[in-house]
Design a protein that fits this description.
The complex is a heterodimer. Chain A is mainly α. Chain A is about 30% helix and about 0% strand. Chain A folds into 3 domains: about 5-75, no CATH class; about 80-180, no CATH class; about 200-280, no CATH class. Chain A starts with a helix and ends in an 8-residue tail after the last strand. Chain B is built from 3 helices and 26 strands. Chain B has helices at about 1-5, 10-20, 45-55, and strands spanning about 30-45, 60-70, 70-80, 85-95, 95-110, 120-135, 140-160, 165-190, 190-210, 230-255, 260-285, 290-315, 320-350, 355-385, 390-405, 420-435, 440-450, 460-470, 475-490, 495-510, 515-535, 540-560, 565-575, 580-595, 595-610, 620-630. The two termini of chain B are about 30 Å apart. Classes of the chains: A mainly alpha, B mainly beta.
Chain lengths: ~290, ~625
């Protein structure tokens, strides 16, 4: 390369850079753009603590006319509602399309996520703390939490998305491909309950038939219960005897021997003897 | 040292964060949000019930800690004084790696006065750590490796029915579950997916001893004239389970309107368990018709669970607003178990006092369960056409179960094994109308089944839901949901009938940006009846479960430039099987004292009363003072 060619290119580069520097930054007018420095959408693009305009234009489109007009709001794209989600968010987050919360006017990306004003203490740019957010629509599940026996959702640790996948992503190893396939699974494909309650996973030599043919929810209420141990009935004997009464139909559930006198307190608490209700490796009658 | 160990995951995360931040040139200060303080508790009444339901503890508490840059985020919530806290660290460097670390700690406590005669209790802790690193060097393939560690440990009490009586035992439990996994996500053009191979190990250790003062058991009545007592008891149980698993998912776009996804997952859990019991005392057994003075028992067992599932789904977008989705899934599970249990009854005699000798019973058990489930479903989704949106779907599941129990499991013939076939067909229709901030939605789900497997399985189930809401921009939001589920099984000898109804209304008012008021009211009705047979006299009776719940909630949030206030009141009242009232109050105030520093104070009160069982009542107040740092 000849020296003058190099000088020419250098001058050109400096001119372009000077022009770039002269171009107004979105952050000059919008504080939100300054705060965007910690936003995951600015990942890898922040230069010396400044968010380049390119980051903003990804979602808001070319802002040249908006700038030239002195900030005319009609000359900039502001993604809102269903069309905003379709035309902006889903262009990159394609994997969330068509999930449990399918894209509608009522529920779309921007119903739950706030790109600029998300809850400062919540990840994934959700608009509010998760319990308040989900409870906005799922008021019934939220009110179940007011019952005395419930998972500790609002006191550290678990949240709704511990068990539920709000996007209901179908490509991954979900438990159910049926109409309500929104539950997370373990990586081995089991129900979300045994992600934490690993000791209930088994396998057991003497497994409880109700657990193997049904699910945890056969006996337990997951969102909250008025009954101890989040059981579906007020007393243990009711939970047990409702299945263990093979009166006529051919169902799974054996008849307790006649010495189980349900009028005596000793036999009203089935688990006082049958302690291994989830399954046992040591006793056919689940006594230990 | 104990405190250091308790906070080791926080320290690790902070060290990683510090290393990450120091490696970067930060031209602006890293935004941080820290709330740390101390909580006091004041509990009157049944503290065990309070701990079972709430268990908020006294002590140092990191209520919140958030550090965030565009490529790093650390969140800590409620770590410190129990009952539960979590830490989450996410960091990535584009083109290099993505690293996630999660830690969760939960104290689990249970001591219910009316459950298992109040003898089943535990005071345990669950620690869960999960870390995963994904390499982002290549666009098409991103390998990852992850590790999860889950420990559940602590003391408890339980019971054991031995020698015709139940004895209270002290229990010490330590279960550890580990999972190592590796795999890769891939993306070749329009085809993407993930392959994971994992190895899981579970190690369970449980030791039990006779609780102090429990020598006479629960029942003071002698058996055939002989008092039943235990002078010493020890039990040791070990369970080892190894579970390799494989998971594979793939999805591809066929043209612009068709997407096909498939997945496969298989695991094979192989468990070995051993146990040893030593008991001395004065005991009896109707099974061998003898009195005896002790038991020495050893057991060895092996159980296997091999499960695989395969599924495929197609999504067709007929137009931008009309989708058809259809899928098929098959799941197969095989459970096999075998056990060898040798029980030596020491110094036994017949009930008549004859034939004095040690008496050994050897039990060899083999059992099996096979379960196959096929699910086919299809749904048509019509996205908004004007103000309307519709979804209609159908699904059918076929469940085949074959249970072959060992003879040792059968005490009374019937209901413990056999072949079962249950087919459930479900129709779903829901729609919504949305215009000018007003939304009305309705949903109907109707299911029918050919046969039950469990007695509480429905033959008919209908679920109705109506939802209405109105939202005026930035001022008011009104919502109402009514939900009813009816399920029944009218087969002779079952007569199952269940109805659940729930109505919820809520309102959120925001008269000015700084003030938000909210209130909700909810009613919950549960009615269930099913026939059952009394074991003692074979009389057929009806098991009835009734709940009449009423929930009222209200609160206010006010924000000033340098302060904020939040307050909530909740009242939950239940009539029916367990009548109780639960009143909850929460208040929290924060004041920004100087610059980035502030203080926060909070108060919470829970009052629980059971009208039929006052021994369970408690009233608990918690007070907390926190230092805030927000930049």
């Amino acid at each position: 390369m000849k020296p003058y060619t190099f000088l020419l290119l250098l001058c050109l580069a400096l001119t372009v850079r000077a022009q770039e520097a002269a171009q107004p930054s979105c952050g000059d007018c919008h504080d939100e753009a300054k705060a965007f420095v910690t936003n995951p959408h600015a990942r890898g693009a922040v230069v010396k603590g400044v968010v380049p305009n390119d980051v903003c234009t990804t979602c808001h489109g070319d802002g040249a006319e908006h700038i030239e007009s002195g900030g005319d709001k009609t000359k900039i794209t502001v993604p809102r509602g269903l069309s905003g989600a379709n035309d902006t968010c889903l262009l990159c987050h394609e994997e969330t399309r068509g999930g449990m919360h399918a894209n509608t006017n009522q529920v779309n990306c921007l119903t739950c996520h706030s790109i600029h004003k998300s809850d400062p203490r919540s990840p994934h740019l959700v608009a509010k703390p998760q319990l308040a957010l989900c409870g906005t629509c799922h008021t019934q599940a939220a009110s179940m939490r007011n019952k005395p026996f419930a998972h500790r959702l609002d006191r550290g640790g678990m949240t709704c998305s511990t068990c539920h996948d709000p996007h209901g992503r179908r490509a991954k190893g979900e438990r159910s491909l049926a109409l309500l396939g929104h539950l997370r699974t373990t990586r081995a494909g089991e129900a979300p309950c045994v992600s934490c309650h690993t000791e209930k996973r088994g396998p057991f030599v003497f497994s409880h038939g109700g657990l193997e043919t049904g699910e945890c929810t056969t006996c337990h209420e997951t969102h909250g219960s008025s009954n101890p141990k989040q059981l579906v009935r007020a007393t243990v004997q009711q939970v047990c005897i409702e299945c263990h009464s093979p009166i006529a139909a051919a169902t799974l559930g054996s008849q307790p021997p006649s010495f189980h006198n349900l009028s005596l307190p000793r036999y009203q608490n089935c688990t006082t003897c049958h302690v291994a209700v989830h399954g046992s490796n040591r006793d056919p009658q689940l006594l230990k | 040292m104990e405190t250091l160990m308790r906070y080791r995951w926080l320290l690790l995360a902070l060290c990683l964060t510090a290393a990450h931040v120091s490696a970067q040139t930060m031209p602006i200060p890293m935004p941080i949000d820290i709330e740390i303080g101390y909580r006091w508790t004041d509990v009157s009444g049944n503290e065990n019930m309070y701990r079972t339901q709430i268990n908020e503890d006294e002590g140092l508490l990191i209520r919140a800690l958030t550090l965030a840059t565009s490529d790093l985020r650390l969140d800590v919530s409620d770590l410190g004084a129990g009952p539960a806290g979590a830490l989450r660290l996410e960091t990535r460097r584009d083109g290099w790696y993505r690293f996630n670390l999660r830690y969760r700690r939960a104290d689990a406590f249970s001591a219910l006065p009316a459950f298992a005669l109040g003898q089943h209790t535990f005071d345990r802790t669950r620690d869960l750590v999960d870390g995963e690193i994904e390499i982002l060097r290549w666009k098409a393939i991103k390998p990852f490796i992850g590790y999860t560690w889950n420990r559940y440990e602590g003391p408890g009490t339980t019971t054991w029915h031995v020698g015709q009586d139940e004895f209270l035992l002290s229990q010490d439990l330590r279960d550890t579950d580990r999972e190592l996994r590796a795999g890769a996500t891939f993306e070749f053009g329009s085809v993407s997916g993930q392959l994971t191979q994992g190895w899981r190990t579970f190690r369970g250790r449980e030791t039990l001893t006779l609780a102090p003062g429990a020598n006479n058991g629960n029942n003071s009545d002698p058996v055939l004239g002989r008092p039943i007592t235990v002078s010493a008891l020890t039990r040791d149980e070990r369970t080892d389970v190894d579970t390799p698993f494989t998971s594979f998912s793939i999805g591809g776009q066929a043209g612009s309107r068709v997407r096909v996804t498939g997945n496969f997952v298989r695991f094979a859990a192989d468990g070995d368990a051993t146990g040893a019991d030593d008991v001395t005392g004065s005991l009896a057994s109707f099974a061998i018709s003898r009195f005896f003075n002790g038991i020495a028992e050893e057991s060895a067992s092996r159980a296997k669970n091999t499960t695989w599932r395969i599924g495929v789904r197609g999504d067709i977008a007929f137009t931008d607003k009309v989708d058809l989705t259809a899928g098929y899934r098959r799941e197969h599970r095989e459970l096999d178990g075998s056990a060898l249990i040798r029980t030596l009854y020491l110094q036994s005699v017949t009930f008549g006092g004859a034939d004095p000798r040690d008496f050994e019973v050897v039990l060899r058990a083999e059992n099996a369960l096979r379960r196959d489930e096929d699910v086919l479903d299809a749904a048509l989704l019509v996205r908004p056409v004007g103000p309307l949106a519709l979804r209609a779907g159908i699904s059918q599941s076929n469940l085949d179960v074959n249970v072959a129990p060992d003879l040792a499991e059968i005490v009374v013939d019937g209901g413990q094994g056999g072949a079962f076939d249950r087919r459930v067909r479900t129709f779903l229709l829901d729609g919504s109308y949305s215009l000018g901030g007003f939304t009305l939605g309705a949903s109907l789900q109707s299911s029918g089944a050919n046969d039950p497997i469990l007695r509480t399985d429905f033959l008919e189930r209908d679920r109705y839901r109506v939802r209405a809401s109105w939202k005026a921009p930035k001022f008011v939001r009104l919502g109402f949901v009514a939900d009813e589920t009816q399920q029944s099984n009218d087969r002779p000898g079952i007569g199952y009938d269940s109805t659940l109804r729930q109505y919820t209304g809520d309102v959120v008012l925001t008269p000015v940006e700084q003030v938000s008021l909210h209130a909700s009211a909810s009613r919950f009705h549960a009615d269930s009846t099913i026939l059952f047979r009394h074991p003692e006299n074979f009389r057929i009776d009806e098991s009835i479960h009734v709940e009449r719940g009423k929930s009222l909630e209200g609160g206010v949030a006010v924000t000033w430039p340098r302060a904020s206030f939040e307050g909530d009141l909740t009242h939950f009242e239940n009539e029916g099987a367990i009548p109780f009232k639960l009143d909850r109050s929460r208040a929290r105030v924060t004041v920004q004292v100087h610059g980035t520093f502030g203080i926060g104070a909070e108060w919470a009160r829970d009052k629980y009363t059971e009208s039929a069982f006052a021994v369970a009542d408690y009233e608990a107040s918690r007070y907390g003072v926190f230092l805030l740092l927000r930049r």
